[in-house]
Design a protein that fits this description.
Distance between the termini: 42 Å
Number of strands: 6
Structural class: alpha+beta
Largest sheet: 6 strands, antiparallel
Helix content: 40-55%
Number of helices: 12
Order of helices and strands: HHHHHHEEHHEHHHEEEH
């Protein structure tokens, strides 16, 4: 789909230039200045390009700046990571890749999680490393806090070494389609390697799984790239019996954190059981 003039590269550069006051860029502000944002010549100077080139970019006569020019413009305009990536894409360039997977929960994510109450929810990093879970999650699946932190990884549970116990669920868990879940996890990990190609923890995880699990190696060889978004699971809870839940995976922006929420159909027997687990399930506290 062609880019509209209002949302193209030139229009966005003008928008970002107009919103950035000279003082924020360390430039002196002359008395009686009419322009609230940066002038074209100021942006050109900050980015190390000619004024004529800035004019051609904004007028749409130049549409494919080099990687170095795109990076310089992003720095000069003080763009956020998302805005920087947007500039690159408008310029038909691949956005820069970040180096390491983050386990950090931004304040906004923490606020959302706190407002979910007793809903069973956990947060995984881009490599499916468990980084946070709440009381509802531990009550439904068992508290994963007893497992060593390194082993609290969904992919390691999917493709275990030998017949060892699972580390993320204390009770038996079955999926509606186990093969589909296995394939989804592997394809999601492959997607993560494109997003975080230099992350050592992700690289070590894939090496380990490839070495010990023929099933993982088989699925990895397909080359499928996709995100794991949803699933359906039945937890054989020791106190309330089998509980069937919907598993929805939400992704948090640039960090690729995966917020996994387990819920039951409204008004169902499973919903009643799910509520009972919060009372009769394993006692637990929120972990991060």
């Amino acid at each position: 789909m062609p880019t509209t003039p209002e949302s193209g590269l030139g229009a966005m550069i003008r928008t970002w230039r107009d919103r950035l006051p000279p003082s924020a860029a360390g430039l002196p502000v002359a008395h009686g200045r009419r322009t609230a944002g940066l002038r074209r010549e100021e942006l050109a100077d900050l980015a190390g390009v000619s004024v004529d080139y800035v004019v051609r970019l904004e007028q749409g006569r130049a549409t494919t700046p080099s990687v170095s020019v795109a990076a310089a413009l992003a720095r000069a305009l003080q763009l956020s990571t998302a805005e920087r990536d947007h500039l690159y894409r408008l310029a038909r360039l691949a956005p820069p890749l970040d180096g390491a997977i983050s386990d950090h929960l931004a304040p906004g994510v923490q606020r959302v999680l706190a407002r979910l109450g007793d809903v069973a929810v956990a947060v995984f990093a881009a490599d499916w490393q468990l980084v946070w879970w709440n009381h509802g999650w531990a009550a439904l699946l068992g508290d994963p806090g007893a497992s060593p932190p390194r082993l609290r990884n969904f992919a390691r549970d999917r493709f275990p070494v030998g017949a060892g116990p699972a580390h993320l669920a204390r009770w038996p868990v079955t999926e509606a389609d186990r093969d589909a879940t296995d394939a989804a996890v592997v394809s999601d990990l492959r997607r993560a390697t494109g997003r975080f190609p230099r992350d050592s923890r992700l690289a070590a995880l894939i090496r380990d799984l490839h070495a010990v699990s023929p099933r993982f190696a088989e699925l990895w060889a397909t080359g499928v790239v996709a995100a794991h978004r949803e699933d359906h699971k039945t937890i054989d809870h020791p106190f309330v019996g089998p509980v069937t839940v919907d598993c929805d995976v939400l992704t948090d922006g640039d960090s690729e954190l995966k917020i996994v929420i387990l819920t039951a159909a409204p008004g169902s027997e499973d919903e009643t059981k799910l509520r009972l687990t919060a009372i009769s399930g394993a006692p637990a506290t929120t972990h991060h």
